Batch of 2 targets.
Target 1
Amino acid sequence: MGITPTALEKTDKHTLVNLQEEFNKTKIQEVLDDLNQELIGLKPVKNRIREIAALLLVDRLRQKVGLSSSNPGLHMSFTGPPGTGKTTVATKMADILYKLNYIKKGHLVTVTRDDLVGQYIGHTAPKTKEVLKKAMGGVLFIDEAYYLYKPDNERDYGSEAIEILLQVMENQREDLVIIFAGYKEKMDKFYASNPGLASRVANHVDFPEYRPEELLKIAEMMLQEQQYQLTKEAELVFLDYIKKRMLQPHFANARSVRNAIDRARMRHANRIFNLSSKIVTKSNLTTIQAEDILKSRLFNT
Ligand SMILES: Nc1ncnc2c1ncn2[C@@H]1O[C@H](COP(=O)(O)OP(=O)(O)OP(=O)(O)O)[C@@H](O)[C@H]1O
């Protein structure tokens, strides 16, 4: 079709070389490796982020060699229960977008409804615009985004904030990426009530709830970072603790695990402090024992 096989081959070869070079240049692999190392589990999320990164990279490359670019939508939706790594992954996503030159600064600004919506007439627009100003050049992460929309209250100022966000999403695509986050079911309802907004959110990532064994691994990783470890017995007790905690109200996955660890460290310190011998070994200082966890009120009920 006008192109000789040799010419086509040459172009193909040329493009292939560019892809590899471009990929190396962006240092995206480092971000993906960090993501892999820092977060336990989350396989589907990690795969999805890799897919999005690949799409964005290929699109950049197509632009470079003069091919049509589909102009990929950059706004995203991260759904899942609290403490499942949405904010952590959003930080990495911001870095990827920055490295691919889609945004100029690459920082993450995390907000909730209260940061965007005022309580009185005339307060919402300046509040939302102030947040947008801070987030320009980076990623705006709106946690529990569905609280922006209150269908029962016609005069709620949340819709004013949504209007402003919509304008920015459409007109300043070069400067700002928005990630809407929250529970899946509530987000689905939010999108259904705001089709204009939904149509501008191109990438959806769903964060699954962690299994107890994954939460134990997360705990062990967090402890290791702080140079602590669990005894074998403490491991089993902690797993038991997690299973009990999951059934309690306000359970927030890895965040609840982090809080539990903080409390276990407190009890550990107390135990060490009360030891009859005031000479302690390094192992005393680093080892969390079963009793440090068993003293949690969860085991007294
Ligand atoms: N898979 C994981 N491996 C290791 N640490 C994790 C993992 N998931 C979450 N964490 C840690 O748990 C804490 C909470 O995670 P993060 O804030 O990213 O969750 P979130 O889904 O954004 O929660 P929320 O929506 O409630 O703000 C962070 O300290 C994070 O490092």
Target 2
Amino acid sequence: MKILKNQTLDQLLEQVDRQTDQQANQPEVEATVSEIIANVIKNGDKALKEYSQKFDKVELDDLRVPQADIDAAYKNADQDLIDALNLAKNNIVSYHQKEIQNGFVDAEQKGVVRGEKITPLAAVGLYVPGGTAAYPSSILMNVIPAKLAGVGKIVMVTPPQKDGIGQAVLAAAKIAGIDEIYQVGGAQAIAALAYGTESVPRVDKITGPGNIFVAVAKKQVFGQVDIDMIAGPSEIGVIADDSANPKEVAADLLSQAEHDKMARPMMVTPSEKFAEAVSDEIDRQVQTLPRKEIASASVANKGFIAVVDDLDEAFTVMNAIAPEHLEIELEDAMQYLNQIKNAGSVFLGFNASEPVGDYVAGPNHILPTGGTARFFSPLGVSDFVKRIQFVTYSRDALKNEEKAITTLARVEGLEAHARAVESRFN
Ligand SMILES: NC(=O)c1ccc[n+]([C@@H]2O[C@H](COP(=O)([O-])OP(=O)(O)OC[C@H]3O[C@@H](n4cnc5c(N)ncnc54)[C@H](O)[C@@H]3O)[C@@H](O)[C@H]2O)c1
Ligand SMILES: N[C@H](CO)Cc1c[nH]c[nH+]1
Ligand SMILES: [Zn+2]
């Protein structure tokens, strides 16, 4: 993997920023996606089926996966898979239960009650990627927080496969408790969820990760529906020094590189020797991977190791990049938690290998990418609820505040506002 030495912070950030721009704003992708969305709005299921044929090479009669197929997949699945999914489910549930919000009611001022009511969304659409790999784990990550939030209707979409949706995906859907699944992927799936078609119901919010077409489509339908975040091609940033093991760090970097040709494996280290050892390990290990074509492309396109002066500079660089995953491969890693300002999910210490979080730890693996961890958070229970505010006033309490209200209303030139309150007393 490419090693960048003697770069100023600005040079390093310029390179990463440029990459971010390319990823997020590719004009051709934007144009393709808006054409797909317009076609789905106009032609509904017919457009979905045509795109499935074009992009996924699958001819479909029905978009909905029959319940019998979901039940059969669960029944016939390997026991090890069921056990692994159940272990992951339990850990994801126990983590996300702690995120549940209860709202509040206050009665601090005499005659006034104020509050906030946490209300689950009525219908959400969950995108489960399935282009170059099947992601049963992403089903659990998507569905569990939605269920804990109390969402009424959960619809899942995932790209069609030549031999039908994979058994592991359907078994995970069964374990997660979802039974409305549509086999449609990419931008067309996002359009279907946002606008509805004859088969696919319109929802209030779309969540879940996907490739660049999915990410751009979510951006384009935002406003018609809500979205969780831009969760695009995977990223891993590592801060490491000589105390880490180059073989393990290289393996962790490749774990994310194998997701996508556009995935970003990135490392910052104060040690040139360590940088070279990791780079050599990556070149060696990548050749042994079944998905070596994808992983090598990711390393070549987006990967880099930056050698910096010290650990403080390493944190400055990583905070500016705001990676989806951040591994701290340093002794006593917990002590650095306060230095981390921007990252989706942080893995502290030599044993917290990123795939622990992808599968079983419990925190969500649907995370912001492309620098958006500066302002987006991981998917969680709060994504599936909205807040409704309420107030009630006694007549005396209203009288007490009448003057303030009418003064502000008249300063804003809004006479009807003032008179609405005065009408209670005249
Ligand atoms: N950030 C996260 O939390 C997170 C989690 C899991 C996975 N991921 C990412 O999700 C992504 C999954 O990507 P994927 O491709 O495997 O599956 P995907 O389901 O996201 O995309 C597949 C779909 O892309 C569409 N498509 C493919 N080529 C197209 C083209 N030329 N024009 C228009 N549409 C086209 C097709 O409709 C296809 O069904 C990866 O980038 C992975 O890194 C991210
Ligand atoms: N690392 C991915 C998020 O970027 C999530 C995932 C699913 N399966 C394996 N990994
Ligand atoms: Zn992963």
